[in-house]
Amino acid sequence: MCSRGSDVLLINDAEARMLARWPNLVKAARGILGMGPKAVVVKRGEYGALMVTADRFFFAPAYPLEAVFDPTGAGDTFAGASWAIWPGSAWWTPAPSAPPWSTAR
Questions:
Q1: Would you kindly state where each structural domain of the chain is located, as residue ranges?
Q2: Residue 73: predicted pLDDT
Q3: Which listed CATH number (1.10.10, 1.10.720, 3.40.1620, 3.30.950) goes with 1-61?
Q4: Mean pLDDT by 10 residues, the chain (105 residues)
């Protein structure tokens, strides 16, 4: 059971299927929404990730590689980066504009 106070639940595809008891990941993610979180992010390994909220669905495919040497920590890195850029998180503050020395213009 998810905490009703949770904003986001980030889990892998096997965990989503097990928690929701649905083999289809979209149905599983939507079912998990009913357990309390405002958003469900499902990591799909080499296939990417999907996010479901009450009114949105987003899928991000993974960049295909010929060979993966060591995926250790990839999911943790994805989770950390996701929280760092999640709007409203303690770490997320939008920059008013890019500094003149940056490459973002």
A1: 1-61
A2: 77
A3: 3.40.1620
A4: 72 95 95 92 89 89 82 77 67 52 48
φ, ψ of residue 51 in degrees (nearest 5):
-130, 135
Q: What phi and psi values does residue 49 have, to the nearest 5 degrees?
A: -155, 155
- pTM for the model stands at 0.73
Distance between CA atoms of 37 and 54, rounded to whole angstroms? Answer: 10
- The structure tokens listed for 13 are 């595809």
CA distances from 98 to 29, 39, 90, 95 (A): 36, 29, 21, 7
And the tokens for 36? Answer: 């309390």
CA separation for the pair 10, 70 (Å, rounded): 22
| SS3 assignment, position 43 | strand
pLDDT, residue 29, reads 95
